[in-house]
Amino acid sequence: RRDVDQLRRLGYVVDSVSGAAGGYQLVAGGQMPMLALDPDEALALVVGLSAAVNSGVADLAEPSVSALTKVLQVLPSELRQRSEALRAVTVAPRLTENQSRVPAAVLGTVAQACRDTVRLRFGYTARTGASSDRSVEPYRLVNLGIRWYLLAYDMDRTDWRTFRVDRMSDPTPARNTFTPRPLPTDDVVGLIRAGIDTSAPLHEVVVEFAVG
Questions:
Q1: How far apart are CA 27 and CA 202, in angstroms?
Q2: Cα dihedral 168→174→179→181 (10° resolution)
Q3: pLDDT digits (tens, 9 = 90+) for 139-184
């Protein structure tokens, strides 16, 4: 009964019949809704699925659109209208043709290695185009807009390094776990940003302008 009351508060129409043969029936479509969300939860889900379309992860755009369509179909009218309004007026950055997407399988392998604290080997293409084989202790994944970065301890260089996940290839996790080292800072995002800044190319710019 409490569950039915909650559904009604969320806007679902539920008919009830009293008596020994009585019960409850959902009016809209005659099926139990896939989700029972309050307004904030509905908007959070729409925002998350919409962001996944332009997340920089390959093979997620179409499933995200499909999942979002299914979610909107089972929401009550008021929540659906609010969610569709948010979706309609929100503009997100899109990847250009020269921006690489991260294969979903690569991202999943890296995430699992971070969680399981196992070393990771992979091929890596640097900003300069140079290729190398890396062996690291992976710690954290950071998503900055359309880019995914890995914070890891590089075993060959004996130092912390930042890797763009879309430049990684054939990540292979080890079988044995490692003992996590203390992170150099609690501000992992700041550390990633610092690594990006120091790896960016430097250019000397001369500006000439007329006066008077």
A1: 64
A2: -10
A3: 999 888 778 899 999 999 999 999 999 999 999 999 889 999 998 8
> In sequence order, what are the residues at sequence separation of 6 or more whose Cβ sits closer than 8 angstroms to the Cβ of residue 191?
151, 160, 162, 184, 185
Contacts of 75 (CB under 8 A, 6+ apart): 35, 37, 42, 83
- Find out whether 112 and 104 touch, Cβ atoms under 8 Å: no
The b-or-e profile of 33-61 (16+ CB within 10 A means b, else e) is beebbeeeebbebbeebbebbbbbbbebe
Q: For residues 38 and 5, give the distance between their C-alpha atoms in angstroms, rounded to a whole number.
A: 13
What's the pTM value of the predicted model, to 2 decimals? 0.63
Q: How far apart are CA 70 and CA 87, in angstroms?
A: 14
> Could you give the CA distance from residue 4 to residue 7 in angstroms, rounded to a whole number?
5
Q: Which residues pair with 121 in a beta bridge?
A: 135, 172
